[in-house]
Amino acid sequence: MRYALVLSEVAQGLRRNLSMVISVVLVTFVSLTFVGTAAVLQLQINQMKTFWYDRAQVSIYMCTEFDNSETCDGTDASQEQLDAVEAQLKSDTLKPFIEEYFFEDHDQAYANFVEQFKDNPVADYAKPEQLNQTFWIKLKDPSQADVIQETFAGVAGVQSVTDQRSLLDRIFTVLNAASYTALSIAGLMLVAAVLLISTTIRLSAFSRRREIGIMRLVGASNRFIQTPFILEGIISALLGAVLASVATVGIVEFFIQGFLAVNVPFTSYITTAQALVVPPILIGLGIILSGFAAKVAITRYLKV
């Protein structure tokens, strides 16, 4: 195969259909940027899961005089009930599961509440006795929170036992939904990109139907005829994929690291180095889809 002639045909095809090529680049860029954003969001969710699940605690809320649940009789948890819970936490049964724990009384709970809601009028109406005394427990393995919940379920003086992981699961469910939504939009955009590439290749082939006819007459193989058109589609999509890769890394560098990590530093964020795993995926996806679309389009055209 004469590579110089093939490359010349590719350059000629790109020049003739410049507006369509630009359209393919832009559609590929937008669609793969959605794919990259979804991938980055999934990486960030996994990063946050690792960060927060390792810090998730189990809280044992003791009764207050305002509780009238099955284990509370409208009185504050007595000292005997507090001692019983603490003794259970120190027992040989639970000690293997617990890394550490600490107790928060009414006054400490109130101080933390006021600090948390210092700019909210609700802090003016709260009273120390309204806030639960709480045992905060950090487990060696946060996934074993069921052991604590089963141990203290129904114990007198215990209002409830809460695993923070269950609260985090709700947040991550919403974030996962956002990631899947971005991926769905990206899928639709990729379909549009494939159709546009197919249309571009067929128009390019139609504009060069005379040259194709001559090549057939002189005995050129289908492979020789098809290769320039396939390369046109791949080059167009590759440009879009490179732009999408730059945009994806830019989102991590300037938005996640440059803005969120500085202004919302309460969690862990992915780094630019971690995001570099995404560009090869985008470029590979762009090449495969465009090559497939161009191959199908030109094969069907040559059969007409």
Brief descriptors of the model:
alpha+beta, 68% helix, Cell division protein FtsX, 304 residues, 4 strands, single chain, four-stranded antiparallel beta sheet, FtsX_actino, FtsX_ECD, 2 domains, Alpha-Beta Plaits, transmembrane, 8% strand, 10 helices, rod-shaped
Account of the protein in words:
The protein is built from ten helices and four strands. The protein is of the alpha+beta class and 304 residues long. The chain folds into two domains: 3-53 and 169-303, no CATH class; 56-164, Alpha-Beta Plaits. It has a four-stranded antiparallel sheet with strand order 2-3-1-4. Helix 1 (3-16) packs across helix 8. The longest helix has 44 residues, at 164-207. The chain is rod-shaped. The two termini are 24 Å apart. The model has no long low-confidence stretch (mean pLDDT 82).
Helical percentage: 55-70%
Shape type: rod-shaped
| Strand order, largest beta sheet | 2-3-1-4
Q: Structurally, how many domains make up the residues?
A: 2
Poorly predicted regions: none
In what range is the share of β-strand residues? 5-15%
Q: What structural category arises from helix and sheet content?
A: alpha+beta
Number of strands: 4
Largest sheet: 4 strands, antiparallel
Question: In DSSP terms, counting alpha (H) and pi (I) runs of 4 or more, how many helices?
Answer: 10
Order of helices and strands: HHEHEHEHEHHHHH
Q: How far is the first residue's CA from the last residue's CA?
A: 24 Å
CA-based gyration radius = 31 Å
Q: What value does the average pLDDT take?
A: 82
